[in-house]
Amino acid sequence: MSARARTADFAAVDRFLDRRLEASLAELSRLVAQPSVAAQGRGMEACAAQVAEMLRARGFAVETIPTPGHPVLLAERAGESERTLLIYNHYDVQPAEPLELWTSPPFEPALRDGRLYGRGVSDDKGHLMARLFAIDALLDARSALPCRVKFVIEGEEEIGSVHLPEFLVRHRERLAADACLWEFGYVDHRDMPLLHAGLRGIFYVELTVETAKRDAHSGLGGSIFPNAAWRLAWALSTLKGRDERILIPGFYDAVQPPSARDRERIAALAEVADEYRARYGVTSFLRGLTGGVELRIAEVFEPTCTICGLTAGYQGQGSKTVLPARASAKVDFRLVPDQNPEAVARQLRAHLDAQGFDDVRFEVLGKEPPGRTDPDHPFLELVSETAAPVYGMPMAILPMTGGSGPNHAFLHTLGVPVATAGLGYPDSRVHAPDENLRVDLYLKHAKHVARLLVAFGERG
Amino acid sequence: MSARARTADFAAVDRFLDRRLEASLAELSRLVAQPSVAAQGRGMEACAAQVAEMLRARGFAVETIPTPGHPVLLAERAGESERTLLIYNHYDVQPAEPLELWTSPPFEPALRDGRLYGRGVSDDKGHLMARLFAIDALLDARSALPCRVKFVIEGEEEIGSVHLPEFLVRHRERLAADACLWEFGYVDHRDMPLLHAGLRGIFYVELTVETAKRDAHSGLGGSIFPNAAWRLAWALSTLKGRDERILIPGFYDAVQPPSARDRERIAALAEVADEYRARYGVTSFLRGLTGGVELRIAEVFEPTCTICGLTAGYQGQGSKTVLPARASAKVDFRLVPDQNPEAVARQLRAHLDAQGFDDVRFEVLGKEPPGRTDPDHPFLELVSETAAPVYGMPMAILPMTGGSGPNHAFLHTLGVPVATAGLGYPDSRVHAPDENLRVDLYLKHAKHVARLLVAFGERG
Known about the structure:
The structure is a homodimer. Chain A has about 450 residues and is of the alpha/beta class. The first copy, chain A, contains 14 helices and 20 strands. Chain A folds into two domains: about 5-195 and about 375-460, Aminopeptidase (3-Layer(aba) Sandwich); about 200-255 and about 305-370, Alpha-Beta Plaits. Helix content of chain A is about 35%, strand content about 20%. Chains A and B meet through strand 10, strand 11, helix 6, helix 7 and helix 10 of A and strand 11, strand 12, helix 6, helix 7 and helix 10 of B. Strand 12 (about 305-315) of chain A pairs antiparallel with strand 13 of chain B, so a sheet runs across the interface. Chains A, B: Keywords: Hydrolase, Metal-binding, Protease. Chains A, B: GO terms for molecular function: metal ion binding; peptidase activity; succinyl-diaminopimelate desuccinylase activity.
């Protein structure tokens, strides 16, 4: 099919989307107005029911399947081709706190300056809604979907997708598909659409030391009582050197370095150093990096050990002469292929013990293995190419992104290639106050997904 | 004078104190009911005026002298002998927060089970009141004080006696004395009265690192952005080794080890290891110490570097994948003779710079040099001996205590020996909710001070 023919094919679809934009945003707003905070167990069943109803209204067969946590929705509708696209989304959202930092209430979606604000408006209800909007347009123009579409929509993405891997194993056959469209995606600071072929894994722990049953006065105990804060500081300092090298034996054993092809793809990405300097106010980068392709490789291909939080003793104004009995640190390891969180858990325990820190305990607060699709996979090319008429350029296919998610289970349990594509942008503020979506990117994502479904059905 | 004669001498004094105990506690309660929280600037002038009035009522000439902070009271009354005892107290108290942990309101003194509860009831208003009570008894029995008594009563002890050293320099002549009775003192867990000849100094800082203008997502920045919490953990780990040795060059240069005589005196003190294990729930002590004289020496003769607090990033329930832009630690150095806080400040800065941590800034939140009187000084012997008829044993004279205070200025500006003696006990809860004094120890302290004043006058 020529580019000209394709453009013509989508004139009706695009007209539909342009005309119905306001109505679609209204439907999205109703979805966002229904809180669904997985971490707080707030509104989960009501939101799941609302989403199920939205899918049924579009002719999908929908089943709400319980898990030990929040239910998962499975939905399916046949299409003109037997090719099957699996679309992964989630109906849960992050907690909205701190509420006082929102310009308008998080569960009362508000449109301002071309942006829709509200908790979950981007992550992930906007993505789900834009995809349903694309389906509306296709059904209007063709009265059938161009391919079979399955949705798997979970309610625990924001709390680590704890039951999803097991769910995928159990429902492997019903979820059989040829490819998977991921729950999110974004454009960069220059509005170039990005497609990520892989996600880093995560292993998130809280380290805790307790040295006594209560705090002591530092004048009394300072030279004779063990101090939990010192134990913690010393234990942490054995985890990573000042050169950023993680010192846990075996940690790097499974790491696959980027290939020449990975480097080539990353080199195609725009420079990010100045953007980061301006946005975050960092004056220098780690490892002597100053920018360019090496910075972009490091940000996604290096595993990390990040202290996310430290807590001990007195933290108020001024001084208090206290010797803390308890100290804790939240530590986030990002993992790259082929590391895995179970191995890192064993390595961390063995390391702490070997270093004399058997008093430092840890609780695992999150774990997901890393996963990646071959960036040269034809499905990824298809997703990228179908974006070109909408964004004015194909998506840049990047081998990895720095964030994490349950893609490993899709890749390895279902055996499908996974591509990201979505309506995020650098100021989406997902997980933060004033989460928002840009209406122009919402519309673009819907137009892109319509093209993707058609092309995906045709090539099957 | 024989012990028998002495006993007879004090029969009238003791009768007075026994009979008037209730009235004295009522006067103390009125003093405690007047808040005087230096850190919050609450009730300071009213409390100073109340104390001045209490002194005038006992025939003292009183002057309230302004400082750049809260005023200092100077009071003086001549006695039968020209020997002059300087008594140091303070009228300020610690903040009462957290209020919800008090059994009865902190500024509504309440008597329960032989204890008087209230903020400042022990630290330090009870000490001041017990001493005035002793003076009342002497004036009743003899119509004159046995020696000249001067009071210096400051209003900033709980915020580091910031203006007192300068005040002592300025008023050196008016404060001339032969010896000084310190603001506090206590019995140990077996009710043995303790006399401390020295106090450790203190150098309290807040270390701060800032690596960016705002937090980043750990999935984005983890491998390329500097992390303030890591910088802090690494910087801290260079301050002290896991063997408790402080690694700041020059830190130990001025340290005077305990003499054979110091060790001998400390050996006379009761075993404390089991008491500490029970009270604090510590299972082991630092430096391989298990108890005995070595533990008691370490607790007061070792300088310390204590992490009193750690703050960075996310500290709530569960996980948040944040890369902190800011981290801080409160660190308390206890100093022993002849260290001094100015030198430690320079050493700390030089050390951090030399270790590559010029990004770690610190703010000084408190500093007092250490100071000690010769434990064999005759004044200390006198204070100890005069306690014997009251406590059934002389005070154990110990070369040092672990806490800090402005005794250095008394020792070096005024040139007076300084002895501690007081009504504290291990469960006084000073600086904490339910601060209290034991009425029996209040009475004992008054009886002891009466004997001390008489003996002090006689030996002049």
